[in-house]
Automatic annotation (TrEMBL):
It comes from the Bacteria. It catalyses: oxidized coenzyme F420-(gamma-L-Glu)(n) + a quinol + H(+) = reduced coenzyme F420-(gamma-L-Glu)(n) + a quinone. This is F420H(2)-dependent quinone reductase. Belongs to the F420H(2)-dependent quinone reductase family. The keyword Flavoprotein does not apply. GO terms for cellular component: plasma membrane. It is an enzyme of class 1 (oxidoreductase). Its EC number is 1.1.98.-.
């Protein structure tokens, strides 16, 4: 089990996450080998109960409108990741993508919108289906809508 750290990046961060964040920033937001080569963003979020600022590296799927789809798979765990609960409580946040920091608003997809995007993402990343089967839960799917683009 990875050591838990209290650092400038957030409370309870693993050594692995801290190293990913440092590599991400040192390489201008590019990490070819991280998460199997999937694009990576740094999700800034605030604890739903604690109010503590945190940063979590996550793989994402770029959407045609410039938004970012993220999946709360939690490695196939039966529990949702903490960042998911934090985004429900505080949906307005920011992400680091490449060398820019982008303000975003998280939308938790449900119903037909979730199913449509989920099917697309499982086609692109079949491991998501395995995570869903292993977890025994409906894995949340969120879209982070950019707030820096004119509507």
């Amino acid at each position: 089990m990875a050591a838990r750290l209290v650092s400038a990046y957030g409370v309870g961060m693993t050594d692995y996450d801290r190293a990913l964040i440092e590599r991400f920033r040192a390489n201008g937001g590019r990490l070819d080998a991280a998460l199997g080569g999937a694009p990576l963003l740094l999700l800034h979020h605030v604890g739903a109960r604690t109010g503590i600022s945190r940063i979590t590296p996550l793989g994402y799927f770029p959407c045609p409108d410039g938004s970012f789809a993220i999946v709360a798979a939690n490695g196939g765990s039966p529990r949702h990741p903490g960042w998911y609960h934090n985004l429900l409580a505080h949906p307005d946040t920011s992400v680091e993508v490449g060398t820019e920091t982008v303000p975003v608003r998280a939308e938790d997809l449900t119903g037909a919108a979730r199913e449509s995007l989920w099917n697309t993402l499982v086609t692109l990343a079949p491991g998501l289906g395995a995570f869903a089967r292993r977890s025994g839960r409906t894995i949340p799917l969120l879209v982070l809508h950019r707030l820096d683009q004119a509507d």
